[in-house]
From TrEMBL:
Molecular function GO terms recorded: ATP binding; DNA binding
Name of this protein: DNA translocase FtsK
Residues the entry annotates as binding ATP: 482-489
GO-annotated cellular components: plasma membrane
Pfam families tied to this protein: FtsK_4TM (PF13491), FtsK_alpha (PF17854), FtsK_gamma (PF09397), FtsK_SpoIIIE (PF01580)
Stretches the record annotates as Disordered: 217-307
Residues making up the signal peptide according to the UniProt record: none
Primary location recorded for the protein, binned into one broad class: membrane
Segments of skewed composition (Acidic residues): 230-252, 292-304
Domain called FtsK: residue spans: 465-669
Keywords: ATP-binding, Cell cycle, Cell division, Cell membrane, Chromosome partition, DNA-binding, Membrane, Nucleotide-binding, Transmembrane, Transmembrane helix
Length: 824
């Protein structure tokens, strides 16, 4: 085939120069495959030759008295290697003369290149394989020579023997032994990154695996699917075909002749389906019960990347961003997270049948005929999609919604009539055995790993097992509500963890408000990495209402400052601004700086509204209305979704909403503008409304110890000197002094700063940063104070501020008016 291709190319482009032809060939996939296969062939050949050589080398040694060509050219010479003379010659050179047993590293490396070139598959990065093979070649061969008492053996090869001989002459046998132990340990630590911590983590993971139950309940049908179990996971769908129904005893009673068939999903299927199970996925066995025929459609799980790949990406990410102050910062590894449950979705065929019959019979009772039923099994609920018989009006089913739910007599039934865009009616029925969606499974998903979102949040899995990753930056603010104990805190943690797993501390800062004082305290550990706070406050996590008001107002100032910066940079949003800043098109001397996203999280919003009312509502509404372009995003969560908490003004500015289970339809309407949240089953079962649709999701689950591990991992790394400082907000009551600050409120370096500004006749924060070795925020604050004291003029966009004091003498008079009066 490759040949044909090449020929066609040749005839169509007869005048292509020779090197052009090579270039073409190098791009040709079939050439890659052939080259890769050739390497794999050579690797296999060498491996077999070497193995055989280890057994036959002694017998063949006499033949190697001849020269290579003599040996090859004379058919009279015979060798015992299984690959004959070529095999024996390879063994003699690579194993005996050169590397000994470590020669096996060569075919391993060649094989790895072959796999990569032809199948684009590589279990480990090639560079790593190369480093391992080179080290092993030298170390193992020398070590085997050492073990043999510094002798040239087949295992040590010539290289090992000579290296060991030299080293022994320098340091003796004992020294040599110690050197081997040391070099092995050093290599393990430096190259393989084995540390006592990683060993402990590995042991912990093994113990956890061992302690997990391995077997499935026998009552449930679990049959392996034909797709590879590890990467492709399946959310089964069941089609119940009503057409082949036959009538026997009673007219109403449909006869069920079940027939199951596994299909992989069609690419054009509306929902990409995935399941969190990494074991062979279950497939319902054919059963012969009454009812319409059903097909099981197995949907393929989107690929989960291997941990290695994921961690490699994380590493690459760390190196990629050029703006990093914490260049050695590492995003948390995925092994801090635990796989909850066994990650399997178990399909109980009996349960499916029973639910199907129940739905069919119930609808029959209301004289609604069904043409087809399809079931999609998700982690918590199964969606039965119904196509009613021609002529049945959807409004009829919609009106019967409550009756149908009642007849099905299960908690958490939700009827969607019709499912938007699908022309079917959906009935969601909770699974008897809900499976937990682990945060780990969601974060390893290809979707999350490859996301290009600015603030990606992995919320959980949809009813068809698709991982749902949303962009908080696009939402642009999120309202979360749900009765107590239904999974709100877990949801908040999932959102925060998603961002922590993707974004460097330079890119995002959190402002955490936690009136309950318990939920978010774990994030204290990452204060100097990811948190933002008001200057001169002790705790970054805000628990006190008065501080919340100051913080919200401070965020409003930050918002205004950012708008000024955007205006002077002539860009429309934070993305364009940062891109321009990274390309060095904005001058830091003029106050420009890289702007991290700021995510404000308020855990118990009801408490705040109850105590501070308008004082918090107004800045929140202002932020929510304006802050999207400049990268400030709000997440507010509440247990009490009543209209005096989630007011019209809040609702109007929070288009994205999440509802966990609530106790009444009214609450559901308050949050979502629709019912449904009252029919959820709790434990992370949620409805997500990104704007105009409702998606039922099982929220990703991570436990408090996992959050602890993540924050600990981040907290133990090098940090910024302090939390990200928000602009100072002086409350109305304390700003009575006409704008000028009292002396005690001024920065300790205020006077020094004033002198520098006057001496240089230049009013810029960066000058102060350089001269006084200050951080941007502090320098910025001093500039504000200098302005308030009338020493420099106001901010003038791209121009430097004007210095209003001409010389040092005038400055001294201004700073110490009393003493000046006495002197004069
Ligand atoms: N996504 C989930 N998957 C599985 N179980 C969950 C999930 N979310 C929550 N749960 C279970 O529900 C319990 C309560 O969850 P959580 O603490 O998040 O509730 P809450 O709504 O924040 O409650 P409160 O408002 O009282 O703080 C958890 O301890 C856990 O057992």
């Amino acid at each position: 085939m490759a040949k044909t291709k090449k020929q066609t190319k040749k005839t169509s482009k007869p005048k292509t120069p020779l090197f052009e032809g090579w270039k073409e060939a190098a791009k040709d996939r079939s050439v890659h495959v052939v080259v890769g296969l050739a390497l794999i062939f050579i690797a296999a050949f060498m491996t077999i030759a070497f193995i055989s050589f280890l057994f036959s080398w002694d017998a063949d040694q006499s033949q190697f008295q001849q020269s290579f060509w003599e040996l090859m050219g004379n058919p009279e010479y015979e060798v015992s290697n299984i690959l004959s003379k070529l095999g024996a010659a390879l063994g003699q050179v690579f194993v005996f003369k050169w590397f000994g047993i470590a020669a096996f590293a060569i075919p391993i490396f060649l094989g790895a290149i072959g796999l990569k070139v032809s199948f684009k598959f590589s279990p480990y990065p090639l560079l790593k394989i190369f480093r391992v093979t080179v080290f092993l070649s030298l170390w193992l061969s020398a070590f085997t020579a050492f073990l043999a008492g510094v002798e040239h053996t087949v295992l040590s090869g010539g290289v090992g023997y000579y290296v060991a001989t030299f080293l022994r002459s320098w340091m003796g046998m004992l020294g040599l032994g110690l050197l081997f132990v040391f070099t092995l340990i050093a290599w393990l630590v430096l190259v393989m990154k084995v540390t006592p911590d990683s060993l402990a983590a590995g042991a912990k993971a093994i113990l956890q695996k061992l302690s997990r139950p391995k077997t499935e309940p026998i009552a449930e049908t679990t049959v392996p699917t034909p797709t590879p179990a590890v990467e492709d996971e399946v959310a089964p769908e069941v089609d119940f075909d009503q057409n082949e129904e036959t009538e026997e005893e009673t007219v109403e009673e449909p006869q069920l002749k079940s027939e199951l068939e596994i299909k992989t999903p069609q690419p054009e299927a509306e929902v990409e389906v995935e399941a969190s199970n990494t074991e062979p996925e279950p497939k319902p066995e054919p059963t012969s019960s009454e009812g319409p025929e059903m097909d099981v459609e197995a949907a393929v799980e989107e690929e989960s990347l291997s941990e290695k790949e994921v961690n490699k990406k994380v590493k690459e990410f760390g190196e990629y961003d050029p703006k990093l102050d914490l260049s050695r910062f590492k995003l948390p590894p995925l092994d801090l997270l635990v796989e909850h449950g066994d990650g399997n979705i178990t399909i109980d065929q009996e349960e499916l049948e029973a639910n199907k019959n129940n739905i069919v019979n119930t609808l029959q009772n209301y004289k609604i005929g069904i043409e087809k039923i399809k079931a999609t099994i998700g982690p918590t609920v199964t969606l039965y999609e119904i196509i009613p018989e021609a002529g049945v009006r959807i409004s009829k089913i919609k009106n019967l919604e409550d009756d149908i739910a009642l007849s099905l007599a299960a908690l958490g039934i939700r009827i969607i009539a019709p499912i938007p865009g699908r022309g079917t009616i959906g009935i969601e029925v909770p699974n008897k055995n809900a499976s937990v969606v682990s945060m780990r499974a969601v974060l390893t998903s290809e979707k999350f790993q490859n996301t290009k979102f600015d603030l990606p949040v992995a919320l959980g899995k949809t009813i068809s097992n698709e991982t749902l990753v949303a962009d908080l930056a696009k939402m642009p603010h999120l309202l979360m509500a749900g009765a107590t104990g239904q999974g709100k805190s877990v949801g908040l943690n999932a959102i925060l963890a998603s961002i922590l797993y993707k974004k460097h501390p330079a890119q995002v800062k959190f402002v955490l408000v936690d009136p309950k004082k318990v939920e978010l305290t774990l994030y204290n550990k990452i204060e100097r990495h990811y948190l933002a706070k008001l200057p001169d406050t002790e705790d970054a996590i805000i628990t006190d209402t008065s501080k919340v008001i100051n913080t919200l107002n401070s965020l409003c100032i930050e918002m205004d400052n950012r708008y000024e910066l955007l205006k002077s940079a002539m860009v429309r949003n934070i993305k364009e601004y940062n891109a321009k800043f990274i390309n060095r098109k904005l001058n830091p001397e003029e106050g420009h700086r890289y702007l991290p996203y700021i995510v404000l999280v308020i855990d118990e919003f009801a408490d705040l509204i109850m105590t501070a009312g308008k004082e918090v509502e107004t800045p929140i509404a202002r932020l929510a209305q304006l802050a999207r372009a400049i990268g400030i995003h709000l997440i507010i969560a509440t247990q009490r979704p009543s209209v005096n908490v989630i007011t019209g003004i809040i609702k109007a500015n929070f288009p994205a909403r999440i509802a966990f289970r609530v106790t009444s339809k009214i609450d559901s309407r308050t949050i979502l503008d629709a019912g449904g949240a009252d029919q959820l089953i709790g434990k992370g079962d949620m409805l997500f409304s990104p704007g105009n649709e409702l998606i039922r999701l099982q929220c990703a689950f991570l436990d408090t110890p996992e959050v602890d591990e993540i924050t600990e991992y981040i907290g133990n790394q090098q940090a910024y000197p302090e939390a990200y400082l928000l602009p100072e907000y002086v409350g109305e009551e304390s700003s009575g002094g006409g704008g000028a600050l009292a002396d005690e409120d001024r920065d300790a370096l205020f006077e020094d700063a004033a002198r520098i500004v006057v001496i240089h006749q230049q009013g810029s924060a960066s000058l102060l940063q350089r001269k006084l070795k200050l951080g941007y925020n502090r320098a910025g604050r001093i500039v504000d104070q200098l302005e308030a004291a009338g020493i420099i003029g106001p901010f003038e966009g791209s121009k430097a501020r004007q210095v209003l004091v001409p010389d040092e003498v005038s400055l001294e008079q201004k700073l110490n008016p009393g003493s000046a009066d006495i002197e004069s």
